[in-house]
Design goal:
The complex is a heterodimer of chains A (177) and B (194). Chain A is an alpha/beta fold. Helix content of chain A is 44%, strand content 19%. In chain A, strand 5, helix 7 and strand 6 form a beta-alpha-beta unit. In chain A, helix 1 packs parallel to helix 7. The two termini of chain A are 17 Å apart. The relative contact order of chain A is 0.18. Chain B is α/β, with parallel strands linked by helices and 194 residues long. Chain B has a single domain, classed as 3-Layer(aba) Sandwich (Rossmann fold), CATH 3.40.50. Chain B has a six-stranded parallel β-sheet with strand order 2-1-3-4-8-7, with helices on both faces. Chain B has a two-stranded antiparallel sheet with strand order 5-6. In chain B, helix 5 packs parallel to helix 6. The chains are: A alpha/beta (177), B alpha/beta (194). Chains A and B meet through strand 2, helix 3 and helix 5 of A and helix 3, helix 5 and helix 8 of B. The complex binds thiamine diphosphate (TPP) and magnesium ion (MG).
Chain lengths: 177, 194
C-alpha cells in the first residue's frame, strides 16, 4: 500500500456526507476498505453489503425513487456485474454515483483482473456512464464531489475511476514469501 | 396444484389499498397485473431490469422507512436475483414485503418452465437466506392471511404464491421510465422532487 500524507478515505467520506449521501452499497474491495468502515460506523449512513454489484445499482435506484441519494463502491471487476442493471438508471434518468477502484491496469500482477479492468472504461461508456479518472490521491475527494454534482444535479450516471497508482501495487507473491 | 389466478389475486390484495402503500412490480406479467388492479402514481412498474425488482423495493423501503413497500414479481425475476434474499436478511427492514407470483414459467418469453417447476423452492431459499417470515400460498383460503403478510406483518416478508399459468391480456401502463420515476417521486416527495 502506498502511504500518503493525505487521508483521502476520510476526505472522501466527508465529501459524501457534505453532498447528502445517505445510502452506501458495496461489494468490498481492499482499496475501499477504510471508507467502507467509516460508512458502517456512521449512523446517518445506511450501508449495505451486496452479494453482487447489480443489487447495489437496483437498491440505489429504489432509494432515489424514495428521495435518498446514494453511492456504489465497487472494484473494476464488479463493473462487469452491473451492465444490464445500468439500463434502469439510464432510461429512467436516475442519478447514479459510483466510485470504482481499478485493477488490471497499472502494474497488475493477477492476469485474471486484466480483461475486466481493461474493459471497464469502454463498458461503462457504452452504457452511457460519464467517467472521471483519478491518478493521484490528492484529487480523489474533489473528483468525488464533482461526480456527485454531475450525477445528482446533472441527472447522470457517473463513475469515479480510481487508478491503481492511487491504491498501490498489489502482489500476493510478496506476501506469500 | 394451485387454482389461484394472478389477476384476481392482485385485485384482492390491493382492494382497500392503504394510502401510504408503495408498490414495485417486476418485469412483464406482474406489471400488467398491477396496472390492471388500478394505475396510481404510487406504483412503480419495472419494465426491464430482470432480477432487480426485490432490490429496487428494498432500496425504496430503506429510503422511506415510514411507508410500507410491496414488491410484486415473477418467479423468473426472483430466481435471477436470489442474492437479494441474503442481502435483505443481512440488513433487514420492517416495511418490505415481496410477493412472488409463481406460475412456474418464464411467462413473457413463451412459458418455458422455470426452476420452480422443477425442484427449486423460492420460499425455502428465502428462509435459508435468513428472511424471518416466509410462506408458500396455494389456496383461496390462504388469501386473507396473504393480505396480512403483504400489507401488515413486520418485514422483511417473502410470500410465494403459486398461481395458474395462463395467457392473459396485456394491460399496459405508461412505459417511459423517466415519466414513471418523476410521477412516483412527485407523488411521494412533492413537486420539488421533479
Ligand atoms: C436479463 C434478461 N434476460 C432475459 C430476459 C427475457 N425475459 C423477459 S421476461 C422473462 C421471464 C420472466 O419470468 P417471470 O418473472 O416468472 O414472469 P411471468 O412468468 O410472471 O411472466 C425473460 C426471461 C430479460 N428481459 N432480461
Ligand atoms: Mg413466472
Amino acid at each position: 500500500m502506498t502511504e500518503t500524507a493525505l487521508d483521502w478515505h476520510a476526505e472522501v467520506f466527508a465529501t459524501l456526507q457534505a453532498e447528502g449521501i445517505t445510502q452506501v452499497c458495496h461489494v468490498p474491495d481492499a482499496g475501499h476498505s477504510r471508507l467502507i468502515k467509516m460508512c458502517e460506523e456512521d449512523n446517518a449512513m445506511s450501508t449495505v453489503t451486496c452479494t453482487t454489484e447489480q443489487e447495489g445499482i437496483y437498491a440505489l435506484a429504489g432509494a432515489y425513487l424514495g428521495g435518498a441519494k446514494g453511492v456504489m463502491l465497487l472494484q473494476s471487476s464488479g463493473v462487469g456485474n452491473i451492465i444490464n442493471a445500468l439500463a434502469m438508471p439510464n432510461t429512467c434518468r436516475i442519478p447514479l454515483l459510483m466510485v470504482a477502484t481499478m485493477r488490471g491496469e497499472w502494474g497488475e500482477f493477477n492476469s485474471w483482473q486484466v480483461p475486466m479492468g481493461q474493459g471497464t472504461p469502454g463498458s461503462l461508456e457504452a452504457m452511457g456512464v460519464r467517467l472521471i479518472r483519478v491518478d493521484n490521491p490528492e484529487e480523489v475527494p474533489m473528483a468525488v464531489k464533482a461526480a456527485a454534482r454531475l450525477a445528482f444535479d446533472g441527472e447522470q450516471m457517473v463513475a469515479v475511476l480510481i487508478s491503481q497508482k492511487v491504491i498501490g501495487f498489489k502482489d500476493f507473491r510478496e506476501l506469500a514469501k | 396444484m394451485s387454482d389461484l389466478h394472478r389477476r384476481d389475486l392482485v385485485i384482492e390484495l390491493l382492494k382497500d389499498r392503504p394510502k401510504d402503500l408503495l408498490v414495485v412490480s417486476g418485469l412483464g406479467s406482474s406489471c400488467w397485473d398491477l396496472a390492471n388492479a388500478g394505475d396510481v402514481a404510487e406504483n412503480f412498474y419495472v419494465w426491464g431490469a430482470m432480477g432487480g425488482a426485490a432490490m429496487i423495493g428494498y432500496g425504496l423501503a430503506r429510503a422511506q422507512p415510514q411507508r410500507r413497500v410491496l414488491v410484486l414479481t415473477g418467479d423468473g425475476d426472483m430466481l435471477m436475483g436470489m442474492g437479494a434474499f441474503a442481502t435483505i436478511a443481512n440488513n433487514p427492514v420492517q416495511n418490505l414485503a415481496i410477493v412472488v407470483l409463481d406460475n412456474g414459467r418464464f411467462g413473457e418469453t413463451g412459458g418455458q418452465p422455470t426452476h420452480t417447476s422443477g425442484p427449486a423452492d423460492l420460499a425455502g431459499i428465502a428462509k435459508a437466506a435468513g428472511i424471518p417470515t416466509t410462506a408458500t400460498i396455494a389456496k383461496q383460503a390462504e388469501v386473507e392471511p396473504l393480505k396480512e403478510l403483504a400489507l401488515k406483518t413486520p418485514g422483511p416478508v417473502v410470500a410465494v404464491v403459486k398461481v395458474v399459468y395462463e395467457d392473459l391480456k396485456f394491460v399496459l401502463p405508461a412505459n417511459s421510465g423517466s415519466y414513471l420515476k418523476d410521477r412516483f417521486r412527485t407523488a411521494i416527495l412533492g413537486e420539488d422532487a421533479a
